[in-house]
Write a structure and sequence with these properties.
With 442 residues, the chain is an alpha/beta fold. 37% of the residues lie in helices and 16% in strands. Bound molecules: 3-[O-phosphonopyridoxyl]--amino-benzoic acid.
């Protein structure tokens, strides 16, 4: 008989928690039991202001009625349908609706269940595309230092966060990395896109010269790097990457898992920066984080290059049991409806200045060495405690939760990315929580 009977309902040991200090957490757990709009409810009944949209995903806020109803209805009507060689109508409707809001030319969508899967899917599309167009020697993938592209093998190979890579062997071969774009000496306390450092994009030319363009399939970057602590592209940087990729026949992939769906005040970061990549990876906001879903947007030329062989043949040997799952599709359609009805994909643009003013009012508070902002993203970088990196920011995270705000920390950086429904009053409230926390920690 299963030993489940011996486990008390509150035993925390069985669940090996992701990206968590398990032993520390289980000694003093922080539990969320309910959520509505901008707030969580903690297990002791306290309301917690959500300063991070869950994990950068609940862009429309929590437990929105349309999304909840759509999921309930879909679960009762068509719970699951095979995704291979079979279809169900709403996933096609969803793909069309997504293409409608995507940057021009992004005419096709491949569904996944997470950002990590979207990234690995995009890398595979890039490699296979080079092969089907007769450029099969282009097998190399170029990422960037400090990049985060999820946790699957493709994503950690092109990613550049050392702790996410070092335990896992040799990863994908044939990967190189561009330098990151964080220049605190010159750009600290910039508002929005920083002035200095755009020329670092030219490092891609050096990498191309080293390996030869004929060996390189794709370059992948986050237009704004999130997980690594909010690193912005300096002025002109993304445009220059686009030019270099075009010059050398290299595909440009934007990983928009956090920037997609309104985070910057435009539907996608590609719109914000006026730079259109060849492939866009998304997840999170596509279904408001409610049901796992990811979507990879692909330019028409790339998709069409696959549609050439005999018609009875599968064109791309890739997919997931849950690609375009009906309940996830219903949740995503209701999410898009909610975004549209409430203007959420552009709301960040209306709030960007207010948000920036509020964040930058923290300049001069204890420990603060930089403040960065773009759209509805903010980062407050703290001076690390000597010999104990990450400890100070983690203290801030715990104190903020005790005070009634959910913030996110990575290294010694506090990252903020609230739901796009946040009010000006709630922005003040969130920033005041951070201010009080900074004054209270060691
Ligand atoms: N790409 C990017 C750019 C991401 O930010 C992923 C891929 C992977 O997505 P999945 O769905 O596989 O987790 C992400 C995820 C944080 C944080 O606190 C960020 C992410 C996930 C969890 C926490 O910064 N981003």
């Amino acid at each position: 008989m299963s030993n489940r009977l011996n486990v008390t309902p509150n035993d925390l040991s069985a669940f090996w928690m992701p990206f968590t200090a398990n032993r520390q957490f289980k000694q003093a757990p922080r539990m969320l039991v309910a959520a509505k709009d901008m707030h969580y409810t903690a297990s002791d009944g306290r309301k917690i202001l959500d300063g991070t949209a869950g994990l950068w995903c609940v862009n429309a806020g929590h437990c929105r009625p349309k999304i909840t109803e759509a999921i309930q209805q879909q679960a009762a009507q068509l719970d699951y349908a095979p995704a291979f060689q079979m279809g169900h109508p709403i996933v096609f409707e969803l793909a069309n609706r997504l293409v409608d809001i995507a940057p021009n030319g992004m005419d096709h969508v491949f569904f996944t269940n997470s950002g990590s899967e979207s990234v690995d899917t995009a890398l595979k599309i890039a490699l296979a595309y080079q092969r089907v167009r007769g450029e099969g020697s282009r097998t190399r993938l170029i990422g960037r230092e400090r990049g985060y592209h999820g946790v699957n093998f493709g994503g950690i190979s092109v990613g550049g966060i050392v702790s996410n890579r070092k335990m896992f062997g040799t990863l994908l071969t044939g990967v190189d990395h561009m330098p990151h774009t964080h220049f605190p000496d010159k750009n600290a306390f910039s508002r929005g896109v920083p002035e200095h450092g755009g020329d670092i994009a030219n490092e891609l030319e050096r990498i191309v010269a080293l390996h030869d363009a004929s060996t390189i399939a794709a370059v992948i970057v986050e237009p704004v790097a999130g997980s690594t602590g909010v690193i912005l592209p300096p002025k002109g940087y993304l445009k220059r990457l686009r030019e270099i990729c075009d010059k050398h026949g290299i595909l440009l992939i934007f990983d928009e898992v956090i920037t997609g769906f309104g985070r910057l005040g435009t539907p996608f970061a590609a719109d914000y920066f006026g730079v259109t990549p060849d492939i866009i990876t998304t997840a999170k906001g596509v279904s408001n984080g409610v049901i796992p879903m990811g979507a990879v947007f692909v330019k028409k030329e790339i998709h069409d290059a696959f549609m050439n062989g005999p018609e009875h043949m599968i064109e791309f040997f890739h997919g997931y049991t849950y690609s375009g799952n009906p309940i996830a599709s219903a949740a995503a359609l209701a999410t898009l409806d909610t975004y549209k009805e409430e203007g959420l994909l552009t709301r960040g643009a209306e709030l960007e200045d207010y948000w920036a003013d509020a964040l930058h009012s923290l300049k001069g508070e204890p420990h603060v060495i930089d403040i960065r902002n773009i759209g509805l993203i903010g980062a407050i970088e703290l001076e690390p405690i000597a010999g104990a990196p990450t400890k100070r920011a983690f203290q801030a995270f715990v104190k903020a939760f005790e005070r009634g705000a959910l913030i996110r920390t990575t290294g010694d950086i506090i990252a903020l990315s609230p739901p796009l429904i946040i009010t000006k009053g709630q922005i003040n409230e969130l920033v005041d929580h951070v201010r009080e926390v900074l004054r209270a920690i060691d």
